[in-house]
Amino acid sequence: MAEAHSAVAFSFSITHEGWDVNFDREVLHLVWQSGIRSWKKRIARFKNNIRNGIYPAPLQSLWAIVAILAAVHFAKYGMVHTCINAILVLMPGSTLLWELLACLLLGMVVWLAIIYAVRYSLKLLLMYKGWMYEERGKGRVISTRTKIWFLFVKILSGGSRPLLYSYQGSLPRLPLPSLQETMSRYLRSVRPLLNDKDYSRMQKLAQEFQNGIGAKLQRYLVLKSWWATNYVSDWWEEYVYLRGRSPLVVNSNFYGIDAILIDSVRTQAARAAAVISICLQFRRLIERQELEPILIQGLVPLCSWQYERVFNTTRVPGVETDRIVHYMDSKHIVVYHKGRYFKVFIYFRGRILRPCEIEVQLEQILSDESLPAKGEEKLAALTAGERAAWAVARQEFFFKGLNRQSLDAIEKAAFVVALDDFPYEFDEHDPSKLDHYGQILLHGKGYDRWFDKSFTLCIGSNGRIGFNAEHSW
């Protein structure tokens, strides 16, 4: 991998004259800044987890409830006064300070009870799906039931501005259909594919399954649906995606294309730097949970967990099954150009690099005429082949040394950028160019995309962009 020489923070040696200690202050400063940034992220994540845990109530509501309970207590009125006196019995004293502490404890219990009652009520309301089937638009009449439902959902979810994961605890569980309903839907789905004789045989097999092993499997599913919020998602990821042994290219990975009707910047380095910067800003919004969750009609939330693994994520091959590895942070991206991999740092003194600073580094890469190291140019072809073969090669050739360090640099990158040395073309009068554009993004040359990464950002020599994305995350 083409990258800067390794920097050593400090080193020491023993000579006949004594100890010889050398240290690099700049590297130590970078290590210090990295630690500070890491702790800031941990603290921010902890604060966000608290906000998500008490949503839709703002934290200030706790002090309001404590103040109300304290006022009622000192007025010696009703059940509140009795409860606080019962708490004071368990405390070592009964001074004003202990009374206030008892008010705080009771206030927290009442506050949490209200929060969880609201969250559970919101979860019950979100189970209603009738709004999906009602027509919208001018002159259309929404049913009274749906209007009332909209009103209650708006009231219960309007306490404070939601963070990205604020609604996760209020989302309803995926409903588990009955075994009879599942078999009925299965038979309806296969009916157009079978003649009468084969369909009659399939009905008998379905009945045998329903009366036999199917009932036992259904009980397992019921048990899992009580334990997990989604009884199928982890199995779907494991058995539909990660256990597949065929190549990711074409079979699983997908691509996204540029806004082809917009005439964008034609300078490759400038466009790449701008898009990289936007991606990094988007990553920061996700990390800070400042990105607003998707709300259908501005009210009904969708699950936001997919955002968690957009960046800093890679799919690691295994002989029998792959696994998805997500890193909490990454300080660099990896750029591929003319068969060479470059490790590009994206932070300087605790801040994300500006687009102009990223562009300078990309210009240096584009003007670099060095040749790829032996085996470097087509290294990514391993990620395009059979998964078991890639797993064996990884264990044999990438378990230590420079190969291991280089592989870690790629897999721990925020994402991979491919700077192609040919243009991505589009012509309204020549559909074949758009076909070729899609082929470039879907599979490229088979060795110029790192297909295991969550996504590879691709930039043509004319500034047009696209991406290739791994599907399982």
Structure description:
With 473 residues, this protein is of the alpha+beta class. It has 4 domains: 1-51; 59-133 and 140-157, no CATH class; 179-227, no CATH class; 254-469, Choline/Carnitine o-acyltransferase, domain 2 (Chloramphenicol Acetyltransferase), CATH 3.30.559.70. 48% of the residues lie in helices and 12% in strands. The protein has helices spanning 25-54, 60-74, 78-89, 96-126, 144-156, 179-190, 196-211, 213-227, 233-242, 268-287, 355-367, 381-384, 387-397, 401-411, 431-442; strands at 10-15, 18-23, 254-257, 295-296, 300-301, 313-316, 323-326, 332-337, 340-345, 347-348, 351-352, 416-419, 455-459, 465-469. It has a 6-stranded mixed beta sheet with strand order 3-14-13-12-8-9, with helices on both faces. β13 (455-459) and β14 (465-469) form a beta hairpin. The radius of gyration is 29 Å and the shape is globular. It catalyses: 4,8-dimethylnonanoyl-CoA + (R)-carnitine = O-4,8-dimethylnonanoyl-(R)-carnitine + CoA; (R)-carnitine + hexadecanoyl-CoA = O-hexadecanoyl-(R)-carnitine + CoA. It is found in: Membrane; Mitochondrion membrane. Residues 1-47 form the Carnitine O-palmitoyltransferase N-terminal domain. InterPro entries: Carn_acyl_trans, Carn_acyl_trans_N, Cho/carn_acyl_trans, Cho/carn_acyl_trans_2, CPT_N.
